[in-house]
Amino acid sequence: MPKSGVVVVGVDRSEVAKAALVFAAREADRRGSRLVVAHAGDLPKHSERRVEPFGESLSREAITTVAAVAPHVDCRVEVRQADASDLLVELSTGADIASRQGDPGRVAGHRRPARRVARRARGPLAGPRPSLTPVA
Questions:
Q1: Share of residues in the chain with pLDDT > 90 (%)
Q2: pTM for the whole thing?
Q3: Does residue 52 belong to any structural domain of this protein?
Q4: 12, 16, 96, 132: least CB-packed within 10 angstroms?
Q5: Do 117 and 26 touch, CB atoms closer than 8 A?
Q6: What CATH number has the domain bearing residue 62?
Q7: C-alpha separations of 28 from 31, 96, 100, 101 in Å
Q8: Does some domain include residue 134?
Q9: Is 1 part of any domain?
């Protein structure tokens, strides 16, 4: 499969997601790839809440982190009202690598979406080494 020059990572505000973001930024820098940072919120259709305000704040934090860790990496942020695993699977199509969280059972702090991503991802998955400390 030809390289696309894209590394994908899903984020929220968890420590696990921050580690995955740093890993993905360094990996994109090492590969000379663009970084796509994704955040999705799966809210009920009639919910008063919206994903975008939280996503915008999270986007600013992610861009700041990437700039500090890998200042030469071109970073794009994708925020959507969607299922997190569906978004990551979609964005993994054709990507050089999709960064998973340190615990193979987690995506942005949630276990079930990570398993779905691991089963359905359309490209290689990698991420920071899991902590030897049990997750509470």
A1: 24
A2: 0.76
A3: yes
A4: 132
A5: no
A6: 3.40.50.620
A7: 5, 9, 14, 16
A8: no
A9: no
Query: How many domains does one find in the chain?
Result: 1
Task: Identify whether 40 is part of a domain.
Answer: yes
Query: In this structure, what token pair is assigned to residue 88?
Result: 């990551």
- Mean per-residue pLDDT, 114-127: 66
Structural domain containing residue 86? 6-126
Nearest to residue 84, comparing CAs of 20, 130, 128? 20
Question: Across residues 29-35, what is the average pLDDT?
Answer: 93
HEC profile of the chain: CCCCCEEEEECCCCHHHHHHHHHHHHHHHHHCCEEEEEEEECCCCCCCCCHHHHHHHHHHHHHHHHHHHCCCCCEEEEEEECCHHHHHHHHHCCCCEEECCCCCCCECCEHHHHHHHHHHCCCCEECCCCCCCCCC
For residue 94, give the amino acid letter. Answer: G
